[in-house]
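Task: sequence design from structure.
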């Protein structure tokens, strides 16, 4: 059966890493006799330039008619002076809301071959394997009112943090479900000593926990969680938290691996298409230079194969191919100090395809 994939290259290095992903998906379709159909749409700054809006109706329609969505990146200094509701990031937030992508999964796994790239000591990072389950369609990023008013010294800015019990229940339940699948424990992160929304969050966690009596769980304040991620990341298995906390903690956790260019993400709804994207930004300073690391995007393809298409063999083969390439010493510029040996985006993609092809043919 044909799988329809919406490709949203976006801004900066987005087109380069999305091109890497489509090449790998094309090879997977050849090796495993699948049929992937790619349909392209504009999102973010490129959409503003072409149509005056960060999320065109045509793009939204393409996504809703697809089985999965692959996103490169959005944003850049070119659009930084635009009003908040006109900026590229508004397009991504709107897409998440329109597709009801309430659950964002951000795995953090250490590749042994990249242990030296981490700023943390080996004994701290060895064995780290955690996933952050972030609520994605509520909280401070979506709350109303959102405004600026007054002038001069009287000017104020207002953002509103709102969560309903229903929103909290479904993401907390998703966190427990992942802990159940992984056979691990759940850490719920909040700021219940200050925020009323966090106090509701903690109450809901206690209620949902009764549905999962075999799962060990605990509560942790977000400031402590930020410290513990660096002090002892191995203590975590599944972290579930609200939108802004999850955004900040997952970026912090990415540096355990040594590079933002290594981490994927999946944003899932209850029954519609999921969105798969690297967590790095658009990196406008290296856009067009052909040196972007494609591995976070290719790892996002692994998550797409797993969660959108249930192609577990294909996902495992691609994941192992990425690991093999790293074990063989291949690096992009963000992962090495040796510019002479650093691979380009295209070269790294080709190495992954070669490793994937050999793995599948041999098996």
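Answer:
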């Amino acid at each position: 059966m044909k799988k329809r994939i919406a490709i949203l290259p976006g801004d900066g290095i987005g087109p380069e890493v999305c091109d890497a992903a489509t090449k790998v998906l094309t090879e997977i379709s050849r090796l495993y006799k699948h049929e992937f159909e790619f349909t392209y749409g504009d999102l973010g700054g490129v959409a503003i330039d072409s149509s005056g809006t960060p999320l065109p109706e045509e793009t939204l329609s393409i996504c809703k008619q697809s089985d999965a969505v692959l996103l490169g990146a959005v944003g850049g200094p070119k659009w930084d002076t635009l009003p908040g509701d006109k900026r590229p990031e508004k397009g991504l937030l709107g897409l998440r809301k329109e597709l009801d992508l309430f659950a964002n999964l951000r795995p953090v796994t250490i590749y042994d071959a990249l242990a030296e790239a981490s700023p943390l000591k080996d004994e701290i990072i060895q064995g780290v394997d955690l996933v952050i389950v972030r609520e994605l369609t509520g909280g401070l990023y979506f709350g109303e009112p959102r405004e600026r008013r007054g002038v001069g010294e009287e000017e104020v800015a207002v953002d509103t943090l709102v969560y309903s019990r229903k929103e909290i229940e479904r993401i907390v339940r998703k966190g427990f479900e992942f802990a159940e699948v992984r056979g691990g424990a759940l850490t719920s992160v909040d700021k219940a000593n200050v925020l009323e929304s966090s106090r509701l969050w903690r109450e809901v966690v206690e209620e949902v926990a009764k549905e999962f009596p075999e799962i060990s769980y605990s509560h942790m304040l977000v400031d402590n969680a930020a410290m513990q991620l660096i002090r002892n990341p191995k203590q975590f298995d599944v972290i579930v938290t609200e939108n802004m906390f999850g955004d900040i903690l997952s970026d912090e956790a990415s540096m355990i691996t040594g590079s933002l260019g290594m981490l994927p993400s999946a944003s899932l709804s209850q029954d519609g298409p999921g969105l798969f994207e690297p967590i790095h930004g658009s990196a406008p300073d290296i856009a067009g230079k052909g040196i972007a690391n494609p591995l976070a995007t290719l790892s996002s393809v692994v998550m797409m194969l797993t969660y959108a298409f249930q192609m577990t063999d294909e996902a495992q083969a691609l994941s192992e191919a990425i690991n093999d390439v790293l074990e063989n010493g291949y690096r992009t510029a963000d992962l090495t100090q040796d510019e002479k040996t650093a691979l380009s985006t295209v070269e790294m993609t080709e190495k992954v395809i070669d490793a994937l092809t050999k793995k599948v043919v041999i098996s």
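The first strand starts at residue 3 and ends at 10.
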